[in-house]
Amino acid sequence: MKKVRHSFLSGNGMQTFLTSLLSVAVGLVLGYLVLLLIEPSGAGEGMTAVLSGCFAFPGKLMLKYLGQTLVRTVPLLLCAISVIFAYSGGFFNIGVAGQYTVGACAALYGAIAWSLPWYVCLLLGILAAGLWGGLCAMLKLYCNVNVVISGIMLNWIALYLTNWILGGIKDPTGPFTPALQGVNPSALLPSLGLEKLFFREKSVTIAIPLTLALGAAVWVVLRKTVFGYELKATGHSLHASRYAGMNEKRNLLLVMVIAGALAGTGAVLLYLSGMEQWSTTQSALPAVGFSGIAAAFLGGLDPFGAMLSAFFIQHITMGGGNIDLRLYSPQIADLIASLIIYLCAFAGCFRLLLRRKSALGRAQMSQKEGGRVE
């Protein structure tokens, strides 16, 4: 029985699941302690409100808010998958926020300035974000610029370039780009009747099934194809892949082009759903890009794990709106999510402890079995 238990704990998938679960549990406990420090009388109800999210609402209203949660999970999940794909090739894609921004810029400009249909805007956003991600790889390959430094710098260039470009087509009455429903309805993503499942929430579109399909496709590419094996081999050892006959520069360039395209797709699917407009005066990078990094690591750098972690992060973020505003700020949900994200940095430490415990258990069993044989 002990042998089965230690074998069960030694599996990489189970260790990843347990470390992620531990990060979430510790983050929730710390969040609850923060609520106790602010106002003890409402701590229990506050934590329940955050965790209940959209499920706190009755009947059809719950379906409506669930639809909104799923719509906002789409860009977060695709940013996480972008990070996972880049990481498989040895890149830490901290530039995902800039790639997301460029994708939004290209799609919105095509939709508003050129009145293009949704599928052309989608392709335009994917292409622009992919090229922006490829630029980061080219700086590394041909100029030996650290990918983290170039990614951070390109993030800010993307933000202010987007503000300048979209500032020329913004609504004259405010800083936001005009709503697509009014200027170009053909740029809105089709719903194919999905909004009927979520109490006529119009922002629910084909973005949700498309994102799930992309996540599954990335998993297949990385785990089941020669191309995915080459990408991972190149990321593990550049020189070994070169001596094995692989085109390492092409592989690394493709990694960042595809990673950028995935992040840009997340932005396009959000803004073409009609849920949000871009603010041309914003001075902060989209938080979804950095939250995507956390969702990727919380999900164990696996596309299917990222689906669960992205939904959970967005779920508790939306749950912050349910909290008693007389006692707490609605940003308390962001604080709890931040604590969980911070603890993700220690996931490797948790995993190392599990591996040591598993190895110690196997060693003890071997000694006992050896003593019985003697």
Annotated CATH architecture of the domain at 58-307 = Orthogonal Bundle
Largest sheet: none
Shape: globular
Number of helices in the DSSP assignment: 16
First-last Cα distance: 22 Å
| Oligomer kind | single chain
SSE string: HHHHHHHHHHHHHHHH
Could you tell me the CATH topology label of the domain at 58-307. ABC transporter involved in vitamin B12 uptake, BtuC
Number of strands: 0
- Note poorly predicted spans: none
Q: What integer value in Å does the Rg equal?
A: 23 Å
The helix-and-strand class reads mainly alpha
Name the helicity range. Answer: over 70%
Q: What do you see in this structure?
A:
The protein has 374 residues and is mainly α. The protein has a domain at 58-307: ABC transporter involved in vitamin B12 uptake, BtuC, CATH 1.10.3470. The protein contains 16 helices and no strands. The radius of gyration is 23 Å and the shape is globular.
Write the layout of secondary structure elements.
Blueprint: H1 2-10, H2 12-38, H3 43-52, H4 59-88, H5 96-112, H6 118-143, H7 147-167, H8 180-183, H9 207-224, H10 226-236, H11 238-243, H12 248-271, H13 287-298, H14 303-319, H15 332-344, H16 347-373
Quick overview:
The protein has 374 residues and is an all-alpha fold. The chain has 16 helices and no strands.
Q: Top keywords for this entry?
A:
single chain; ABC transporter involved in vitamin B12 uptake, BtuC; mainly alpha; about 375 residues
